[in-house]
């Protein structure tokens, strides 16, 4: 395992970003994690969701994720075009991933396609002022997310993740 992947799966990560502190009260139904990487969140999602899709373009990272979340469905696909059936997902999770997606507009359209009409988008991402993490130039603020998803989603709630991250639940607007 390379240094980056080892860092992503380091048990010490729970001290600053512990999914078990917030996922149990948020997760329900069918969940798709887009950009799951080596499965840090997948391993917890399978405990709380009815069904979990773990999607990533990187085949090697998905192989690692398969070891952590045996009951998930793993898709080696791009987040902008998945094989997940239309209107079949209750929640889409972006855990430290959306800011890295190349074609955010296409990913947004895919999210709308796979989500049920009352679906939610859950965001966990780095605070803009965190002194480590991804380059500050690619980070998105809470406001950036709310604005980006605003045509079809509205902020339902914020939740505490840890000192370096924020969490949002964006609910699909009724038509």
Helix- and strand-based class? Answer: alpha/beta
Overall morphology: globular
Strand order of the largest sheet: 3-2-1-4-5-7-6
Strand composition percent:
25-35%
Strand count, sense and barrel status of the largest sheet are: 7 strands, mixed
Helix content: 25-40%
Average of the residue pLDDT scores? 93
Order of helices and strands: HHEHEHEEHEHEE
β-strand number: 7
Q: What is the gyration radius calculated from CA atoms?
A: 15 Å
Distance between the termini: 46 Å
Low-confidence stretches: none
Number of helical segments?
6
Give an overview of the whole structure.
- The chain starts with a helix and ends with a strand.
- It has a seven-stranded mixed β-sheet with strand order 3-2-1-4-5-7-6, sandwiched between helices.
- The protein is globular.
- The chain is built from six helices and seven strands; from the N terminus they run H-H-E-H-E-H-E-E-H-E-H-E-E.
- The model has no long low-confidence stretch (mean pLDDT 93).
- The chain has helices spanning 3-8, 23-26, 42-48, 59-68, 104-114, 142-149, and strands at residues 30-34, 51-55, 73-75, 89-95, 115-126, 153-162, 165-172.
- It is 26% helix and 29% strand.
- It is of the alpha/beta class.
């Amino acid at each position: 395992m390379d240094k980056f992947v080892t860092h992503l799966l380091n048990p010490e990560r729970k001290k600053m970003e512990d999914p078990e502190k917030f996922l149990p009260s948020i997760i329900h139904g069918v969940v798709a994690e887009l950009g799951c990487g080596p499965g840090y969140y997948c391993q917890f999602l399978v405990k709380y969701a009815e069904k979990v899709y773990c999607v990533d373009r990187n085949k090697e990272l998905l192989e690692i994720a398969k070891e952590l979340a045996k009951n998930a469905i793993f898709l080696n696909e791009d987040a902008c075009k998945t094989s997940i059936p239309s209107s079949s997902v209750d929640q889409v999770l972006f855990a430290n991933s959306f800011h890295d997606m190349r074609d955010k507009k296409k990913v947004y359209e895919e999210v709308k396609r796979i989500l049920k009409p009352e679906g939610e988008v859950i965001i966990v991402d780095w605070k803009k002022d965190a002194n480590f993490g991804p380059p500050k130039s690619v980070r998105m603020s809470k406001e950036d997310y709310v604005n980006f998803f605003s045509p079809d989603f509205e902020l339902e709630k914020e939740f505490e993740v840890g000192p370096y991250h924020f969490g949002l639940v964006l609910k699909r607007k009724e038509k």
